[in-house]
Amino acid sequence: MKGSLYRKRYFLFYHPEMSQFIKTLSGDLFRTMKSKLKFSDGEYSIFLTDQFRKQELSEYMSSYYGDVQIITVSGTIRKCKTRLSEDSSKRKESLTAAR
To answer: pTM to 2 decimals?
Structure first.
C-alpha cells in the first residue's frame, strides 16, 4: 500500500496551436483546477494535478477546450514523455504519408 493519500496525475494534452495559447490555458487551469504546467514542447503540454481532480479536469477540458485532445493520463511524467515521443512520431509519419 502506498504511503500518501495524495497521488499525482499527469495529463498529456495535444493541440496543433498549443504554443499560441499555452499561457492562457496554463493560467486558466491553475485558477480553476490548481493544475500546474510541468512541460511544454510545441504542440504538446503536460499538466500536473491530483487524483481527486482528475475527473473534473477531464470534464473541464472537454467542455471549455473541446479542441484540445487528452492523449494520456499517467502517474509519472516519464510515461507521459514516452507517450509524447510515440505520438509525435506517429503524427509526423501520417503527415509524410498524406503528401
So the answer is: 0.86
